[in-house]
């Protein structure tokens, strides 16, 4: 049964990101090939960014406690990139592998336990979800945090907020005008929303489902401002394609839409089109229903998309499953430490993935991959 297969965990055309490790392996990590030499990494800023994803913060987060401090093992001289691949590991220090003993035989509903068994057989790692775990977004955030700093040198800024949890919605980004203060306020928030009252209702809902032993999903809205027109390619390397590919690497993402997204299918062209205008000698659009991307290429308007996250599948309510060995029905009670809602910790993951995709595309467009900063 499938044990001779391997998996690919690499992303990028000009910036090669490779993520490795499992939820309960000694360490997880990332290798970044293509970072220009001469870039000084702000480690305080990087630590502040990765801290937002770290487990063990708040009632809405798993009680697993990890410092998530990256150890850089190549690519730096002091705090400056030297042109060699940049590599970092993050130690796993708070694993409870015994919580997952029964999952060798009884797969959790809506997890990758069964599909991992179908592909990798007895060679799979079920502890904490193995390589399918959200734990692997920690090194993603290390790579993304560095790309965020590189983009800021280009006056490109990325920010996301919790647009919805269950039936509670936050207000949306203004698709035409997103100011720097709004971006900074979200980056500094432990529970990033645009409307604090909506955030309070979201937290109450999370607490309600947590006490019920259940979970709840939602939507993250992300925006990138300062992105120049002309980034990306048509067909298979379109900006939507690049973003969708890496956003779907975040476990629990089940959908993505750009600009008006699915709602554009319900209106007429005259209602959906964005008229072009000249503003301070710059070509813009009066509205931004296209979400900043046309034909796979950025238009210069704010790049806006939304990603849908399913509820955390690990819930304490007893569920129906099967025994893989006995081929018969089985009732499963999941133990361990799990998030009743992953949306707060997913926000920096979405920002990180977006930054990686944008910087990779920017390198390709500007031919910067072999140049020093």
Tell me what the structure shows:
The chain is α+β, with helices and mostly antiparallel strands and 373 residues long. It has one domain: Chorismate synthase AroC (Chorismate synthase, AroC fold, 4-Layer Sandwich). The protein has eight helices and 18 strands. Strands 1-2-3-7-4 form a five-stranded antiparallel sheet, covered by helices on one side. A five-stranded antiparallel sheet has the order 9-8-10-16-11. A two-stranded antiparallel sheet has the order 5-6. Helix 3 crosses helix 8 (343-366) and helix 6 packs antiparallel against helix 8 (343-366). The N and C termini lie far apart (49 Å). The model is unreliable at 368-373 (pLDDT under 50).
Notable characteristics:
single chain, 373 residues, alpha+beta, Chorismate synthase, AroC fold, 5-stranded antiparallel beta sheet, 8 helices, 18 strands, 22% strand, globular, disordered C terminus
Under CATH, the topology is which?
A: Chorismate synthase, AroC fold
Strand order of the largest sheet: 1-2-3-7-4
Task: Estimate the mean pLDDT confidence.
Answer: 89
- State the name of the first-level CATH class: Alpha Beta
Q: Structural class, from secondary structure content?
A: alpha+beta
Radius of gyration: 21 Å
Strand content: 15-25%
Number of helices: 8
Q: What is the level-2 CATH architecture name?
A: 4-Layer Sandwich
Q: How many strands appear in the DSSP assignment?
A: 18
Largest sheet entry: 5 strands, antiparallel
Q: Report low-confidence residues grouped into runs of 5 or more.
A: 368-373
Helix content: 25-40%
- Overall spatial form: globular
The count of domains is 1
By CATH, the superfamily comes out as Chorismate synthase AroC
Order of secondary-structure elements: EEEHEEEEHHEEHHEHEHEEEEEEEH
N/C terminus separation: 49 Å
């Amino acid at each position: 049964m499938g044990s001779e297969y391997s998996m690919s965990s690499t992303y990028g055309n000009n910036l090669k990101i490779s993520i490795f490790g499992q939820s309960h392996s000694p360490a997880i990590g990332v290798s970044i090939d293509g970072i220009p030499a001469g870039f000084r990494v702000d480690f305080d800023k990087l630590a502040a960014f990765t801290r937002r994803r770290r487990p063990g913060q708040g009632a809405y987060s798993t009680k697993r406690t990890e410092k998530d401090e990256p150890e850089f093992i190549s690519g730096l001289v002091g705090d400056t990139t030297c042109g060699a691949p940049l590599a970092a590991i993050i130690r796993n220090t708070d694993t409870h592998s015994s919580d997952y003993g029964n999952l060798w035989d009884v797969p959790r509903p809506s997890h990758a336990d069964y599909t991992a068994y179908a592909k990798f057989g007895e060679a799979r790692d079920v502890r904490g979800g193995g390589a399918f775990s959200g734990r692997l977004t920690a090194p993603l955030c290390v790579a993304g945090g560095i790309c965020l700093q590189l983009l800021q040198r280009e006056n490109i800024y990325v920010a996301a907020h919790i647009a919805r949890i269950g039936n509670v919605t936050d207000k949306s980004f203004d698709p035409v005008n997103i100011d720097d203060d709004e971006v900074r306020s979200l980056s500094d928030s432990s529970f990033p929303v645009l409307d604090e009252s909506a955030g309070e209702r979201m937290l109450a809902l999370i607490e309600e489902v947590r006490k019920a032993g259940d979970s709840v999903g939602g939507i993250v809205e992300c925006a990138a401002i300062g992105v120049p027109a002309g980034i990306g390619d048509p067909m298979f390397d379109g900006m939507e394609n690049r973003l969708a590919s890496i956003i779907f690497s975040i476990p629990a993402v089940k959908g993505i839409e750009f600009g008006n997204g699915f709602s554009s299918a319900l209106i007429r062209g005259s209602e959906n089109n964005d008229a072009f205008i000249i503003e301070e000698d710059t070509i813009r659009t009066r509205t931004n229903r296209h979400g900043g991307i046309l034909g796979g290429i950025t238009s210069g308007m704010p790049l806006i998309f939304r990603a849908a996250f399913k509820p955390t599948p690990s819930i304490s309510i007893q569920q129906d499953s099967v025994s893989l060995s006995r081929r018969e029905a089985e009732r499963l009670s999941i133990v361990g430490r799990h998030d009743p809602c992953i949306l707060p910790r997913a926000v920096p993951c979405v920002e990180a993935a977006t930054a990686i995709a944008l910087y990779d595309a920017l390198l390709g467009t500007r031919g910067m991959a072999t140049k020093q900063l």
